[in-house]
Amino acid sequence: MRGEKLYNPPPEPSRTESERVRFHRLGIDFSYPDSWSVDTDDARDGLASVTVYAPEGGFWSVSGHATGGRPVELAEAVVAEMRAEYRDLDAETAADDVAGATLRGFDMNFYCLDLTNTAQVRTLATPTAVWLLFCQAEDREWERVAPVFAAMTASFVRGLGGGAADSGASG
């Protein structure tokens, strides 16, 4: 019909990486960008494990381990596995204060397929679990995703509530 205006609904708002969704399963609670994908296939044997992948390939993961162990040993085991895979791995001790808790571990740099990569492993002991957090990305992506990894880690630690304690990874 001539002269009639057709209703055109407003366009859907573009979903950007700044939009967050909440993961709340397996005793794990954190926020992550809605454009990233979540994998819980590693969650077995009663151990909670979640990995979240950036569209470009970087990833962040958290896994729960039994209490009573020394968190530093978990972090050192990760470095040993990485060193076995990447012979030129550089690793140095590191600690981050996050939401009132100290997470200790290692910063790592290595080559993979002629590209430089950065990875971080951190641990956190709580009364219910020792948590291992790991993130990795190719260096061209790292600058962009490192703040996202940090925000995910902070949301995870805040999600633990008052149960977060010092990681004890220094000794």
Short structural summary:
With 171 residues, the protein is of the alpha+beta class.
Q: Any idea what the radius of gyration is?
A: 19 Å
Number of helical regions: 2
* Apparent shape: globular
Poorly predicted spans: 1-17, 167-171
What composes the largest sheet? 7 strands, antiparallel
Average pLDDT reading: 83
Strand order of the largest sheet: 3-4-5-9-8-7-6
Backbone structural class: alpha+beta
**Helix percentage range:** 10-25%
* Strand percent estimate: 35-45%
Order of helices and strands: EEEEEHEEEEH
Q: Between the first and last Cα atoms, what is the distance in angstroms?
A: 79 Å
Tally of DSSP β-strands: 9
Defining key terms:
single chain; alpha+beta; 2 helices; 9 strands; disordered N terminus; disordered C terminus
Commentary on this structure:
By secondary structure, the protein is of the alpha+beta class. It contains two helices and nine strands. The strands form two sheets. It has a seven-stranded antiparallel beta sheet with strand order 3-4-5-9-8-7-6, sandwiched between helices. Strands 1-2 form a two-stranded antiparallel ribbon. The chain is globular and about 40 Å long. The termini are far apart. The model is unreliable at 1-17 and 167-171 (pLDDT under 50).
